[in-house]
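Lab manual, section 2.4: Encoding a predicted structure.

Procedure: take the sequence of the chain (473 residues), apply the prediction step described in section 2.3, and record the output as structure tokens. A sample record is shown.
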Amino acid sequence: MNTQLSLGEFHRFAAAHEDFLYLAPSAAVFRLDGAASAVITELERGPLPGEELVRRLAAQFPAEELAETIAELRRVRAIATPAPAATSGRPAIPKVPLTTLVLNVTNQCNLSCTYCYEYGEDKIVNTENGRQPKFMSEQTARESVDFLLDASAGIALPHLTFFGGETLLNFPVVQSTVAYARRRAAELGKDIDFSLTTNATLLRPEVIEFLVDNRIGVTISMDGPRELQDRFRVFANGAGSYDTVIPKIRELLRRHTSRPIGARVTLTSQTLDIRKIYRHLHDEIGFWEVGFAPVTTSPGREYAISGDGFDSMLGQFRDLAADFLEAALANRHHGFSNVKDTIEEIHKGMSKAYPCGAGLGLLGVATDGDLGLCHRFAGSDAHKLGDVRNGIDSLVQIGLLEKHHIDHKTDCRECWARPLCAGGCYHEAHTRYGDTSHANLHYCEWIRGWTATCLEIYGEIAVKNPEYLQQFA
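Recorded output:
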């Protein structure tokens, strides 16, 4: 009992007049009672021998209760005793079947979005004069389906996502691939889930009918009301796309009711009115969910977010998250997907060795069938992991996963938010630092601030309306 005690790794937060810890080693949320809160507060002043800790708190709590509390806090690693130095070694690489394959059915687009990571100044692959074909063939798409069904052994519902460029420029291949994939999956006693991302310019009646008939999930890339949408999302002649896409989107939302339709917004330093964007897309247009992501770009671009921009973005995220909390406590839907997705990860105790499934449970396919780290790296020779005809190059994959493991990101090792971040997006790291394994250090304060907000919202819901969280079980 007289062992020296010190604090473990956690983030302490308050919600609903309760005291909580988010425990970094286990990604668990731990609610503190009075004695536990007092123990943590005392140790925040500095390490203490166990007997001295009990003595200092003896006037407030019985010795037996304190001993039990200290034992429990040690068990969950909220407090720690001196430990031997960690031995270095190779990280354990998880064996995860492929669950999602993203087919870049074309690397061409009918818009000329200034900030586009695929066609702008920060592009990785030459999509105009490179070696890959501009459109995926029906044969390559079928080979991709066969690869997915084989590599997803044990997965009852693998996911096939169609992407681009502008996906619907190659609509005939999307059509034939869905039919082929359904037939092949049925032969194997499996089902298959389909989704696609589009800029909505090509949502003709026959396309909408196909999406409805096949229950295909749809994400629309859109940046908000006319003045924000037309700031960057323009045609080659500079004309804005808002007036073209709005009637098509409204028709899609009217017809396609079997699955929720979401909007995906790219935020820039010049289009950062988050609440205005949300209200327009969710309340006025009718998207079920709206998700926001800051533009991926080199820091010197005029549209890059930096400095005060991150502070503004975090403040607006927090305001919209407060609306989400109010809705959740009243069992009403709210479409701010960023907070919903983070709360789900918190509830499930997500602890990531990698920031996402790229290169593990998710792969991107270039138009020629090459397998990339994800859809953003499709067609990049430097990030190739094999091809759909010959499968994954396991040696390359293992080397990549070892290199990108959280244990190798020195800047992340002592960050309490690492279970949910794991260093950040590979593509963001490549664009900012020229190295996919580099931690996204420019996002660190933002990520910690946003994670802290989501933890507070989670705590409020857990205390006041725990039934709401059952949807994430």
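Check your result against the sample. The two ends are 38 Å apart (CA to CA).
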